[in-house]
Automatic annotation (TrEMBL):
Any one Gene Ontology BP term: steroid metabolic process
Protein species of origin: Winmispira thermophila (strain ATCC 700085 / DSM 6578 / Z-1203) (Spirochaeta thermophila)
Keyword terms, alphabetized: Membrane, Oxidoreductase, Transmembrane, Transmembrane helix
A Gene Ontology molecular function term of the record: 3-oxo-5-alpha-steroid 4-dehydrogenase activity
Keyword Transmembrane helix set for record: yes
Subcellular location as annotated: Membrane
Name of the featured protein: 3-oxo-5-alpha-steroid 4-dehydrogenase domain-containing protein
Length: 245
């Protein structure tokens, strides 16, 4: 039953990927009317992300995980402590987030964190030898590298805007030399690493959902930059250095 639910969840991710390739999610620079009551951006981000912290944290503290299951839950909690408790107070967002976006993100985070926590507590059973497996080693390296890439890129973007300022500027330096959205590239690497290290169906589903959400958004950002800045670097790619639009 569990595996069937995750497979359905993955099929839904593919459908969402197709949808978001046609309709840009209405928040941030792409916000527009008609998507529900606007909510304060900081509060919206905290509400959206908190389930992804609290559910795995509950599993870590009271689910009695052993060995690598506890390690993986710790990695997850580390990421989402940043995303739900620190990131909302770092952002310099002037635009509110529509209620519909918050609601959809909340449903996603409840399901996604639930599937992955359940997998680690009740489905997967890692032998101690897994720590020397190339999939584990490469996966953890990708997870940590992607996290650093994501956090540093976000910090670079924040540095371009003063509190309350509504204008955008062309990001320069760091990985922005090669791509428009290294923060999204970092997140994709991070959760691809998670899928590899945990070697689980739930992990693969999260990597797929991450791509379904962030690949179309990176392409939308890239088009937006080109439309609003005539001097935008012509050789800069949207998401992956050298490859793609």
């Amino acid at each position: 039953m569990y595996e069937r639910l995750v497979l359905v969840w993955m099929a839904l991710a593919v459908a969402v990927w197709i949808l978001l390739s046609q309709v840009t999610a209405p928040y941030g620079r792409h916000v527009r009317q008609g998507w529900g009551t606007p909510l304060n951006a900081r509060m919206a981000w905290m509400v959206m992300e908190l389930p992804s912290l609290l559910i795995p944290l509950y599993g870590l503290l009271w689910g009695r995980p052993e060995g690598l299951a506890a390690f993986f839950l710790g990695l997850w909690v580390f990421h989402y402590a940043y995303r739900s408790l620190l990131f909302p107070f770092l952002i310099r967002a002037r635009k509110d987030v529509p209620f519909s976006v918050v609601g959809m993100a909340l449903v996603f985070n409840l399901a996604n964190s639930g599937f992955n926590t359940y997998s680690l507590l009740f489905v997967k059973d890692y032998a101690s030898s897994w720590t020397s497996d190339p999939r584990f080693l490469l996966g953890v390296c990708l997870f940590l590298s992607g996290f650093v890439m994501h956090v540093v890129s976000d910090a670079r973007l924040r540095a371009l805007r003063r509190e309350g300022e509504g204008s955008y500027r062309i990001p320069q330096g760091w990985l922005f030399r090669w791509v428009s959205c290294p923060n999204y590239f970092g997140e994709i690497l991070e959760w691809t690493g998670w899928a590899l290290a945990t070697w689980s169906l739930a992990g693969i589903s999260f990597a797929l959902w991450t791509c379904a959400n962030l690949v179309p958004r990176a392409l939308s950002h890239h088009r937006w930059y080109r439309q609003h800045f005539p001097d935008y670097p012509a050789d800069r790619k949207a998401l992956i250095p050298v490859i793609g639009p």
